[in-house]
Model the fold of this input.
Amino acid sequence: MKQTNSIKLVYLFRHLADIGGMQRVIIDKMNYLAENGFNVTLITCEQGTHPFPFALSKLVNHIDTNHRFFTLYKYPLLKRLYKNYKMKKKFIDKLQELNNAIEPDFVISSVEPIICQAVCKVHTSAKWLIESHVPMRFTLYQSNLYQTIHFNFIRKIYEHYLFTNIKKSYLVITLTHGDAKDWSRWNKNVYVIPNPVTYYPNKINIPSDNYRILAVGRLNSQKGFDYLIDAFNLIASQCSKWKLEIYGTGELENSLRKQIQSLRLENRIIIHPATNMIYDEYMSSQFYVMSSRYEGFPLVLLEALSCGLPCVSFRCTYGPEDIIKDGINGLLVQDRDIEDLSQKIQWMCNHPKERAEMRSNARKTSFNYRKEKIMPIWIQMFQHIQNGTFSLQEFSIIQQKMETKDSTKDT
Done:
């Protein structure tokens, strides 16, 4: 089997500038692979001088091509399309130049339309792997261009163009089996590898005398903090000792603050800036709540569980049901049901004994998602593909054996 130090990986993203679960896990995976013998290069086009939100290993070579696609949206439509065409051509030319210099074995990207379109135009012997961090059915909504299209038939053309490009990838890697089923419509080679928890504390020390509920994420529509605020409002008087603390930044911050003010809950619901020291906040809370409209694979749930926090979460598409065992390590809520969410939060507040039992189960769940369990699957996958011994069916058996090993252990 080919040694890891002879395998060259190129990770290709627009940028990794935001503080978020996807950025954390991608950087963590690149660091792990580089520190375990892979030759890893990260290529971005819009990182610029923005610092990485999490430490990038010195073993990872970073190249920014300086193509600022986000600047095009200030132009009128026709001028924007023309400039987009010109910039995309220059971007593809630069990627071709870098490909010729690096000669990668694999190119790994997200499902980002600009990136996918560019990869398809580069002449390379590298195998293209796509990581789906957003459910397939919500992929298009990540595109600013798609959101500006008002005619359904044009949207259909755009959708077909994007997903036809994705058919050209060697493998689509999803985080959940539900998303894998959706992607199989566009690419028959779909494989499931869940994200690893980025850090697994050896010891936890949750204070028993605080009354703190935690929520973390970008302050945008996807994360559904408007639902969470309304749900907390329904039980605020019954749970008078408890506070809800939200960590994040985003375009809806002012709107959410106004919502809190209108409910006169300024002293009960507090919004804090995003932090890369989030584990300190997990360790200072009693339980975690996730109110997302949709997710890929919610890393925050794994992080919270690893710190012994039971989780309350909507049954959104996809992820929570893969992680939370209802009544065992947390509580699942009917999707977007604010009243049910408020009742589950109130139950968690009022049942300290059950919370303590869930805390132990939470740790056991997250143990199976440590890097030491997940990253060897990636390493073996790269090696098997490189040596022509990879098949979805056979490698799934290998993965199952790797996942069940040590599955009963805990710290």
